[in-house]
Design goal:
heterodimer; A: 450 residues; nine-stranded antiparallel beta sheet; five-stranded mixed beta sheet; B: 73 residues; mainly alpha; two-stranded antiparallel ribbon; 2 strands
């Protein structure tokens, strides 16, 4: 059955992943409560607002495994399969996201409890909206772009350089026109994961969402602009990114690296309509965890794809939250020939842009258990023989270890990358790395004796 | 909005403008609104944004542009 955002929330609740907050909550406390919960919270009663709000919908790994209906090991494989087997969306005549339509003087973003997330953020942020735009040549683009609240009908549009939307926006500016954009808030995890994917320019991310769903995403045409959005979204903001360019102050903003960014100059997004369900649930996106966990499946999926192409027998991949689910990878492989561990490191560090630190272990090590990875690092690694360091890779200014203050304005940061081959050394004598096991450990269970 | 609610928003907008005679973070602006008054705060912030040029200092704090001695958008 086609599942919407509410269906996902209900399923997460049944699995014990989502918890309800029944007391009145002022939106200023959303962020700290979500930070303490480290998982989804549904705020049933929001002080001063109609309707419910939910945050941390993708706030931990269980949200992904339950949401996708897969095991830890299958998260990345599932995403890679969707990329390789996309399904085009379908246009439907109407949908719940347009049950209520606000235009003209009724456009008012203060209907929604837009939260201030971190202490020095420049304002309240809508982070949970997937932004849909179109390009005459390359078609539809779907991505996450943050919106800093400014007035009841205006936000900044978080178009950062090197994103697809930056390219779409520059084309519109060159033609002296605004860029039409729709922001769909409260969409299914499949659509959120697809929007997090850095797809090639001519790939419609809704086709990846279809690949995840196993059926087409249902879209409706917006009321005031020529853009399509998920028919079952909770809220849709329709509007235009004004062509004036990067002139409106934005930020600071607590980023995926857990550091605060600087004040930026970004474009302005002016609303032409707001459409909603009759009783919309607002998605109060929580940084950095939702941002980070949404990247995990894409990064893990890319690792599976890259390693398969490098003819490495990959068994499991974990992009842990300590690295923003992108900068750190633990990968288990089955070695078939000397050099597989080092080859795996080179393949990963060349292909995954934000990756800074990768550890390759044998497939007897559980990459989802940090103690086991530490054990492999401690007892299978010699630092002078098993490290690979790559210098001068593409970095991000959001990572202050790249020393951005040493760069000229506009210069792109570079980064070094560390790989550790924590597999059993090639040509090790048989028995030297044989692990101890408790006697009769397959035959006796503690619970039978308690 | 009722007339009373409009008055409350205007009072809050005035308080924000007085606060921003010196640099402050947005979280300090939030603290001006009582619990339960977050929606009025969003409205008041919008009103200030529409009518009062604001500048940002090197830490990202807001300040009235005229107090900072420069224009901002």
């Amino acid at each position: 059955m086609y599942e919407d955002f509410r269906g996902l929330l209900a399923r997460l609740e049944r699995a014990g992943v989502l918890r309800r907050v029944k007391r009145d909550v002022d939106p200023r406390y959303f962020s700290t409560l979500l930070e303490q919960a480290r998982g989804p919270l549904l705020f049933e009663r929001v002080k001063g607002f109609d309707g419910m709000a939910v945050g941390n919908v993708a706030g931990n790994r269980r949200c992904l495994t339950e949401g996708l209906g897969v095991s830890d090991r299958e998260v990345g494989r599932r995403f890679a399969h969707a990329v390789e087997h996309p399904i085009a969306p379908v246009l439907v005549p109407d949908g719940p996201c347009q049950e209520v339509v606000y235009t003209g003087d009724d456009i008012d973003l203060t209907r929604f409890p837009i939260p201030l997330i971190s202490t020095k953020d420049g304002g309240p942020y809508i982070g949970g909206g997937i932004v849909v735009t179109k390009h005459p040549e390359f078609g539809r683009n779907v991505g996450f772009y943050r919106l800093m609240y400014r007035t009841p009908r205006e936000t900044n549009m978080g178009i950062l350089t090197h994103s697809d939307m930056y390219f779409y926006y520059q084309r519109a500016r060159d033609e002296g026109r605004p860029l039409e954009a729709a922001v769909a808030i409260g969409v299914h995890l499949d659509e959120q994961l697809a929007a997090s994917y850095q797809a090639p320019l001519d790939v419609d991310e809704f086709t990846i969402a279809g690949g995840l769903r196993g059926e087409p995403v249902r879209l409706v045409r917006c009321k005031t602009i020529d853009v399509e959005v998920p028919a079952d979204a909770e809220i849709v903001l329709e509007g235009e990114v004004l062509p004036e360019g990067f002139v409106y102050d934005e930020g600071r903003f607590g980023e995926w690296t857990q550091y605060l960014g600087e004040v930026l100059k970004l474009p302005l997004f002016r609303l032409k309509a707001i459409t909603t369900r009759r009783d919309p649930i607002f998605h109060a996106f929580h940084m950095p965890w939702e941002n980070d966990w949404l990247k995990g499946p894409f990064v893990e999926g890319l690792a599976y794809q890259v390693l398969r192409q490098a003819r490495i027998d990959v068994k499991a991949v974990n992009a842990p939250p300590g690295g923003g689910c992108a900068a750190v990878l633990y990968v288990a492989i089955k070695k078939h020939a000397p050099g597989d561990g080092k080859d795996a490191l080179h393949a990963l560090m060349g292909a995954i842009r934000n990756l800074k630190y990768a550890v390759i272990v044998d497939d007897d090590v559980d990459v989802y258990d940090p103690d086991q990875v530490d054990w492999a690092l401690a007892f299978r690694v010699q630092a002078d023989r098993d490290l690979v360091v790559v210098s001068g890779g593409r970095g991000t200014l959001l990572d202050p270890s790249t020393r951005p203050w040493e760069l000229a304005p506009g210069q792109i940061a570079t980064t070094s990358k560390l790989g550790i081959d924590a597999t059993i050394p090639d040509r090790a004598p048989v028995g030297r790395f044989e692990r101890m096991t408790p006697i009769f450990h397959h035959d006796v269970r503690l619970q039978d004796y308690l | 909005m009722t007339a009373t609610a409009t008055d409350a928003v205007e009072r809050l907008a005035g308080a924000i403008e007085r606060l921003l005679a010196a640099p402050h973070f947005f979280v300090d602006v939030v603290a001006l609104a009582p619990e339960g008054g977050y929606r009025d705060l969003l409205r008041a912030w919008g009103r200030v944004r529409e009518r009062t040029p604001l500048a940002r200092d090197e830490e990202g704090r807001y300040v009235l542009a005229r107090a900072a001695g420069r224009e901002a958008r």
